[in-house]
Amino acid sequence: MSDSSTKTPLLSIRDLSIALPRGGDRSHAVRGISVDIHAGEIVCIVGESGSGKSMSANAIMGLLPPYLQPEAGEILLEGRDLLKLPEDTLREMRGRDMAMIFQEPLSALNPLLTVGEQIAEVMRVHGAYPGPAREQRVLELLDFVGLPDPATLRNAWPFRLSGGQRQRVMIAMALALEPRLLIADEPTTALDVTTQAQILALIARIQREKGMGVMFVTHDFGVVAEIADRVAVMEKGVLVEQGTAEQVLNRPQHPYTRRLIAAVPHQRAQHGDSAALRGKPILEVEKLAKTYASGGGLFRKKRAVRAVDGVSFSVRRGQTLGIVGESGSGKSTIGKCLLKLTGIDGGRMLFEGEDIAPLSETEFRPKRAKIQMIFQDPFASLNPRQTVGRILCDGPMAAGVPRAKAEARARELLQLVELDVSAFDRYPGEFSGGQRQRVGIARALAMEPQLIVADESVSALDVSVQAQVLKLLREVQHRLQIALIFITHDLRVAAQICDELLVMHRGQVVEQGPPGQIFDAPRHEYTRALIAAMPGREWDPSQAVLA
Fold this sequence. Notes:
Family: Belongs to the ABC transporter superfamily.
Number of helices: 21
CATH topology of the largest domain: Rossmann fold
Pfam family, one: oligo_HPY
Radius of gyration: 25 Å
Number of domains: 2
Number of strands: 20
CATH architecture of the largest domain: 3-Layer(aba) Sandwich
Strand content: 15-25%
Helix content: 25-40%
Keywords: ATP-binding, Cell membrane, Membrane, Nucleotide-binding, Transport
GO molecular function: ATP binding; ATP hydrolysis activity
Organism: Xylophilus rhododendri
């Protein structure tokens, strides 16, 4: 990073405040924040959900909803106060002077237009690159962001692309008119570790080559360690700390920053209950296979994809088995097979010594209570029309438990997952993401299972909430001696909670062992590539001065 202290900032936010419509205890979404971003540097805005970081980014772009408008302060882009400009002028500046990469590219891209049409539309709206030059520019951009065969891919629909490819298309759209300021709002949150590394490297390369100023909004301190020049930390709408990445990551000053860094998972080998690890397996999977038919159409043949290809493993009571790998590696398919949410094409699944693979739904139903799942998305997996009490009681009551007993058990479980018993009569929409995930854990426990499959159950959570949920899972598991299969693409999280790891690649287990061995002496080249791709792998949060 070049010395920018004496240069005029590209972007200067001065005493920005955004009022909430209802006020109350917290009257502002953003209160009096000031941040500078210079050309040629990356500034990471860090904080938990609700801290105001995305709100600040949307204020710069003029994308706040009508009921949320800045009430004080300035946002100066190359000396022009964006808050005083009319909408027509802001519309002209979006794309040309400043551009934004959104968190979820599938919802940000138009499903009815090909990716080439959407990139070209940015130029058409601004009257740039007329005629054949526009098509040529589309191909240049697709090639610049590292997408294969641009001439073919420009005609693809967004749903046909992977998450990483869609994010590259979003970046190409943002770069179409070479803006001076690029805002990236959590652009790698939903991506697996290798795709995340590629997108981070791409943004850093673009920033270097184009000399852009980049505001990178994230809650991931590994990402901060990987790309940030400077860091600004937000809590409840207030900027509590800012400085160079080295200062904030290794010598944080504010108590909130210290708490966030203390909650970051790091590569720490787990030492499980040795008695449990010596016990008889509760689940034994032998040569499990699952094939999906992929593609196909009027002029194309369907092809078979081996999602799970001869996978074998076992798990004991009180043990946590982690399954890690990239998207498409087959790890979530294994979870669906174990719950019999999808059929299998071969192999055996021995639960308490009995092969559950050939059982019909009627035969398996009595055993379903013993194998439960915690889903990835706590927003989509809870019925918004049902109270938490009903969500927790419906399963046991369907299994024949009397209502009074089910309700008493539900209230006990709410306390076990550290929620107030008043949550029993409330609806999921009244809770935060972390609280909803606690409800999901309580729902799984309500059936008194012996095995729980947790599928990316903390990937959508802030680092501090993630730490709380991981701690809760460990405590509940050890107290009740439940076997846990923990599916994740986050190697740091896996090291935090798992006794044993399976590393999957293209449907096969390429390596298996305790976390310490996997991280310290990986044997397979794919495992080494996964570890090398971890953002901020050279930064050790446990070495930060937190006192």
